Amino acid sequence: MADPGADPGADPGADPGADPGADPNAAPRPGPRTPAERALDALWVAVTAAINVGGVIVVAVHNDALGGLTPGIVLWLLTAPVLLWWRRHSPSLVLAGCAAVTWTYIFGGLPPGPVYTPMIVALVGAVVHRARAAAYLLVIVTLAGHVGALLLPAPPSSVLPDLLSGVVAPSLARLGALAAWLLFLLALGELIRHRHALNEERRRRLAASLEAHADQLRREAAEERLELARELHDVVGHHLSVINIQASAGLHLHANQRPGVEEALRVVQEASGRALTDVQALLDALRDPTRTASRLPSPSLSDLDGLLASAHGGGLDIEVEVTGEPLRLPATHDLVAGRVVLESLTNVLRHAGHPKTWVRIDYHPKRLSVRVDNLAPTIDGARTSGGGRGIAGMRARVETYGGILTAGPAEPFAWSVQATIPVLKEHR
User: Fold this and answer.
1) pTM exceeds 0.70
2) pLDDT tens digits for range 348-371
3) Fewer C-beta within 10 Å: the chain N or C terminus?
């Protein structure tokens, strides 16, 4: 049997009109009908109208009573099918209207015929479209009426409808058949409603899954932007600090006619060249998202000499101390530790000038400790503006891998940065 209550593409939404018989626990009203839904509704209107009018005409011809069909009767037969156009948005009202038209036609002694088809469609549609209470009430009233007719002493044969001929002679057999037929229609409506609920749940889950995936992509994009910002801060900020300090020192030496200007300019040239190279690599990564992190400039602890070279060029007096047996660190830990050293040295150059600085690396079987200490700022040390994100960035990187970073004054040093990163067996 066709699905009279089908609503394959309806999306839940609000409907300002209230349907007094609607089930309060049912799904929300559908929004505007889709073209497919409108076409399906129009099809049901046309089919039920054809059955109503055509069936009555066939029965009238068979009974030689065609002359009894007036234009008024035909219009009345078309009323119920037309009501089906609104069965989605006002299912209980449409069901009541179809029932009223059908029973009025039958009780009015008009020409018999299969005029119950619109009421069947409306009944199933009411169960599907949030008007289960109205559908069940109609079934109860119908069965109660038939039971009452059975209890009458001599019920007229034309009182109640016969599902096939339009006239019922009340009997237990016919009552049982009617009850079975009505229960079948209710079960059909419940089945369709359940199927719609499952489809709607699948749509909701799919929408939630797509939204979660979109959120994940947005988070990944934000994390990637943050990572690139950190890359820029790590690999370029250090070079720019060296350039700023050496340029300031060169101007100072030149103003006092002291030697060393040429060396300062050489350091500026080298640092600016490295900065340009690093910036170009980062820009290439932005243009090509498929670039891997390993192709970006990545100062790491395994290249400690390279980390210290530019700091030495900036005028820092650095003493390195390595304790424990060096571990073969995973690339992530190697990179994070290297950036802690680089950022700490950059901060010394930026904020303290050229004080004595110590870099201490302690390899332990279960952890790696990196510490950078410096003495009080030098009197003639250049100060650069900016910054403020370096320590927070270092801490975020270290904590990503379960480590701890502390930064602040620590006697006998003016400033101390210490990072401890756990190294698990599976990391080695």
Assistant:
1) no
2) 888 887 889 999 999 998 899 999
3) N
